[in-house]
Task: structure prediction
Amino acid sequence: MLRAGVDLGGTKIQAVITDEHSKVWGTYRCFTPQEGGPADVCDAMADAVKQAMADGALSYDDLIGLGIGAPGQIDLDAGTVSNAGNLPNWMVTYPLSREMTARLRVPTYLGNDVQVAVNAEVSLGAGRPYNSMLGVFCGTGVGGGVVINKELWIGRGAAGEIGHICVQTKGGAPCTCGRTGCMEAYAGRAAMEIQAREWFAEGRPTELFDIMADKGRERLASGVWYKASKHKDKMAKKLIKRAVWALGSGIGSAVNILDVEAVVIGGGLGLRLGQPFVDKIEKAMMPHLIKPAKPPAVLLAELGDLGGALGAGLLVPTPAAAS
Amino acid sequence: MLRAGVDLGGTKIQAVITDEHSKVWGTYRCFTPQEGGPADVCDAMADAVKQAMADGALSYDDLIGLGIGAPGQIDLDAGTVSNAGNLPNWMVTYPLSREMTARLRVPTYLGNDVQVAVNAEVSLGAGRPYNSMLGVFCGTGVGGGVVINKELWIGRGAAGEIGHICVQTKGGAPCTCGRTGCMEAYAGRAAMEIQAREWFAEGRPTELFDIMADKGRERLASGVWYKASKHKDKMAKKLIKRAVWALGSGIGSAVNILDVEAVVIGGGLGLRLGQPFVDKIEKAMMPHLIKPAKPPAVLLAELGDLGGALGAGLLVPTPAAAS
Result:
């Protein structure tokens, strides 16, 4: 029995093929089409699944379903995705489930990209030993999720917006959401880049944009931040320090409300900056805890770049084991 | 079948006698002894229960148990309470369950004072129609609780410290917990009083302390804040506005993480300032919501001053109904 999981991001598509124990049998990763429309993105996803099947020399007879972790607004009943601003011409409501099932001839299951990644960490990754967990994923923005009694708590569908904890109500930095003072305004890559460009335009020195150009990128990707901080670039270090400061406060607040057993740090930027980043966040969180004698474990996400796709694979129900 | 519930506060003891449907049959309220020790407090609680029984002309044969909502550190297994700083000479570990059972000859059940009050609101009060709820109780401090799937979520025992969401990480007001920028630093009566005394000492005009003296109080009790704001006292209005500002931000952050269906505002100050206070908090919360199209209901606690005692009564297990 095999299931396919696809993490559909604005930059990359990651596909993974797993068995019922979530053991990985094949993977494939490609860039997300930046032009065209939803149908082109579906073609690319179908191709990624086929390449991942080929990677493991697997038989289609064993494939029982496809799970997709998608951005935008998902209608689970209708199997549609709309308002996916990071994907080309995808503000429309598009029948993603139907289109993928037509391409791969297996049932398709949809989930929110961040929620499936949090679910993967608690089911298969760093959160496995815990009953309650807070996932904090630093990428372009800061997303996350709350796990209560081993289950992702989604509220009325919108829970987990941890990036929009307000850590500085008065005089806070502008957030890409239009508000000010959100954790994401300090710890989301998009907001960090806006601040860096502003300072750079003012003539403050930094290697960030040289490194970006060297890597042939147009954005300050996670690897750019990593390399600049390794080079002891002052601006990069200052902005990462600011991110840690905001994450410490916001995560501390969330822990004071929820008293979770563990906090798992992931996302593109989180994974790239790795354990030293996690250690700094833990240190910054401690002074905010009202019960510092019993802090939660603060851990790096264990599943790395595959987390989202593995979590998407978990959307596919496995048949009850034959007794 | 009758059960007794006692809300043990630093200022007052509230007792209530209810039946298995939480219908109220008798109540009694008295001041908490400010001198002596735990045994004197127990005597006062036992007397309050007896007076509440007398209030309803009830028979002791029907009383099946006593629940107490207590401050301090509670050991449920041992039936003890320690570190209750608001009670006279109660930093020791005191066998509260055993002592009350000896006095009233019924089993005694203990619970955290704030948690039982939140539980009362979701079981019997404003939170009844909802599956998920955030309780925010503004009194001396700001306490609260998170209700998920109709159950109070206590984490590893310390969840619900909503007063210590940090709303202003840099340059925040000093909190009575020793940190700065906590919601309680703006919206807890103790912190508000410290700020008012500081401003008054600097010569800023206010009626607050005259009203306090007129009422024969030594502290700025909730009624003092209420009366001063009715008199359009500038300092009182300013500090209440600041409290609303902090509550709007902190509650907004909590809603962004948890997407609860309802927020219930209670506590001594919350109840006294009432619906206009709740309306202002709701208005201050809205700009912080990442999904403003689907805000939670923001409601005044329905059980008023009896909430804590009713919640304490719920700690007493009811015998399975005879079929």
Notes: The two ends of chain B are 16 Å apart (CA to CA).
